């Protein structure tokens, strides 16, 4: 394996799906939110992405079965929206800029192939005070204003690192529209509260009701 590649197990039948990406990062907010979304939607796996730029280890499940680091893609069809959800074990090293571009570009190839109408990337933003807040950055002023009016705060702090930001920027270059949602988190440990806040905000913004007990 000398470049990123997909292993597709099925072909979902979706109509203008929304692509949602949630990966490990600050507070694991993105990964937690993506996991909640897969549960909420009853999403089913249909593809995996492997890359030599992922770390050199295997993950082992409770039954002792190992697998390489990977991105996992799920599909779900709901009454108001269809979704393709991507999550995973890791990201390429932040020092390996080329690897980030390669993996994000490969992912966007699949996004376009599936005719996704909109993309959402989810991550965490470290803050010093405890305040449940969702920030938004977007591919256009119209979208930024739209999601601000739905309750998010405009993110104006300069940079969004890793795939959370890069995926959005590369999508814009391809003519795709989308937003990045960032949950405020106070540290690097898994922050389920921040992940749930972003997930709940996204679902409400798309017209879906979420119960607290999810």
Pick out its properties.
single chain; 214 residues; alpha/beta; nine-stranded mixed beta sheet; 5 helices
Q: What this model shows, in words?
A:
It is a single chain. The protein has one domain: Rossmann fold (3-Layer(aba) Sandwich), CATH 3.40.50.10900. 42% of the residues are buried. The strands form two sheets. A nine-stranded mixed sheet has the order 1-3-6-7-2-8-11-9-10, with helices on both faces. A two-stranded antiparallel ribbon has the order 4-5. It is of the alpha/beta class and 214 residues long.
- What about the largest sheet? 9 strands, mixed
Residue-averaged pLDDT: 91
Strand order of the largest sheet: 1-3-6-7-2-8-11-9-10
What class do helices, strands and sheet pairing give? Answer: alpha/beta
Question: How many helical elements?
Answer: 5
Extended strand count: 11
Name the CATH superfamily assignment: PAC-like subunit
Q: For the CA atoms, what is the radius of gyration?
A: 16 Å
How far apart lie the N and C ends?
Answer: 39 Å
Given as residue ranges, the uncertain stretches (5+ residues, pLDDT < 50) are none
Number of individual domains? 1
CATH architecture descriptor name: 3-Layer(aba) Sandwich
The helix content, as a percent range, equals 25-40%
- Range of strand content: 25-35%
Q: For the record, what CATH class applies?
A: Alpha Beta
Q: H/E order of the elements? A: EEHEEEEEHEEHEHEH
């Amino acid at each position: 394996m000398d470049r990123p590649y997909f292993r597709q197990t099925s072909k979902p039948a979706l109509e203008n799906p929304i692509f949602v990406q949630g990966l490990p990062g600050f507070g694991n907010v993105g990964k937690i939110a993506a996991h909640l979304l897969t549960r909420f939607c009853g999403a089913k796996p249909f593809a995996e992405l492997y890359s030599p730029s992922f770390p050199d280890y295997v993950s082992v499940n409770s039954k002792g079965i190992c697998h390489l680091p990977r991105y996992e893609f799920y599909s779900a069809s709901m009454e108001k929206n269809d979704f393709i959800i991507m999550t995973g074990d890791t990201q390429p090293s932040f020092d390996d800029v080329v690897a980030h571009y390669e993996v994000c570009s490969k992912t966007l190839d699949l996004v376009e192939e599936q005719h996704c109408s909109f993309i959402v990337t989810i991550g965490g933003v470290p803050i010093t005070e405890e305040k449940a807040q969702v920030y938004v950055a977007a591919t256009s002023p119209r979208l930024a204003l739209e999601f601000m009016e739905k309750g998010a705060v405009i993110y104006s702090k300069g940079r969004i690192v890793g795939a959370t930001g890069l995926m959005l920027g590369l999508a814009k270059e391809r003519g795709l529209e989308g937003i990045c949602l960032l949950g405020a988190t106070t540290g690097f440990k898994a922050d389920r509260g921040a992940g749930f806040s972003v997930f709940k905000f996204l679902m409400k913004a798309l017209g879906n009701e979420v119960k607290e007990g999810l």
